[in-house]
Amino acid sequence: MNWVTRVRNAIPFIAKRETAETLWHKCKGCEAMIFLREFEENQSVCPKCDHHGRIGPSARFDALFDNESYEILKPPVVGEDPLKFRDTKKYVDRIKAARAATGETDAMKTARGKINDQMVVVSVQDFAFMGGSMGMAVGEAFIDAVKAAIRAKCPYVIFTAAGGARMQEGILSLMQMPRSTVAIQMLHDAGLPYIVVLTDPTTGGVTASYAMLGDVQIAEPGALIGFAGQRVIEQTIREKLPEGFQRAEYLLEHGMIDMVTHRHDLRGVLSQLIGYLAPEKKAA
């Protein structure tokens, strides 16, 4: 970057021109160039090959709730960097960078609203925030969401997307696995449904805990779902894994999940499931 560009970018009243990166999106499925606005208006689904791109909490909530109307639950306050962890960067610096890039406080966001006049609490993991990794903030957000669903006597739906537990928090991140499992039992004791929507990717400790404990397990098409990585498994068992292994369709075929649902159909499917599982909770 030369000095002219640096000066130009530093002057706030000079508007930056739109570039190819801000106007077009390259599909990771078919590599077609798609007008970015068209891609986002289609819920980040490729109109040519139907590849499901990753989306954040706000876009997900807007697509799900009636009239895009919902209440965001206050994010929990937890201790940051309890282990004073540092690799190539300080953990606190990584958190700051993730917050600046996403505008979120951590990797899970929860909202309360209605889907076809049926009250529901929905959490969304944001893969853009440190790979959606599960740390103390995510664990606490999950538990807070369960408690909110119990107070409202409504179902709890979670959209998972994570690389696993957050290594910078060590054993404290792994402790969120049993904590979330106990919270799910609280939902069951209250007679409330717990519905999981697995999105790309859902792996590691998240898969080994709350992501696979739903009363109903839904996945988006083509989502990567697993615990260990495919290469690690192949090196361990010294065998070539079958085509499509750890993809949503493979898991459906082998009985690991209940259904694979297109993103455009999720609102209707969730509404139907909520009606089946908690019909008495329907708004008058």
TrEMBL record:
Component of the acetyl coenzyme A carboxylase (ACC) complex. Biotin carboxylase (BC) catalyzes the carboxylation of biotin on its carrier protein (BCCP) and then the CO(2) group is transferred by the transcarboxylase to acetyl-CoA to form malonyl-CoA. Coiled coil: none annotated. GO terms for biological process: fatty acid biosynthetic process; malonyl-CoA biosynthetic process. Its main location: cytoplasm. Its cofactor is Zn(2+). This is Acetyl-coenzyme A carboxylase carboxyl transferase subunit beta. Zn(2+) binds at C27, C30, C46, C49. Acetyl-CoA carboxylase is a heterohexamer composed of biotin carboxyl carrier protein (AccB), biotin carboxylase (AccC) and two subunits each of ACCase subunit alpha (AccA) and ACCase subunit beta (AccD). Pfam families: Carboxyl_trans, Zn_ribbon_ACC. Pathway: Lipid metabolism; malonyl-CoA biosynthesis; malonyl-CoA from acetyl-CoA: step 1/1. Residues 23-284 form the CoA carboxyltransferase N-terminal domain. Gene3D superfamilies: 2-enoyl-CoA Hydratase, Chain A, domain 1. It is an enzyme of class 2 (transferase). GO terms for cellular component: acetate CoA-transferase complex. The gene is accD. Binds 1 zinc ion per subunit.
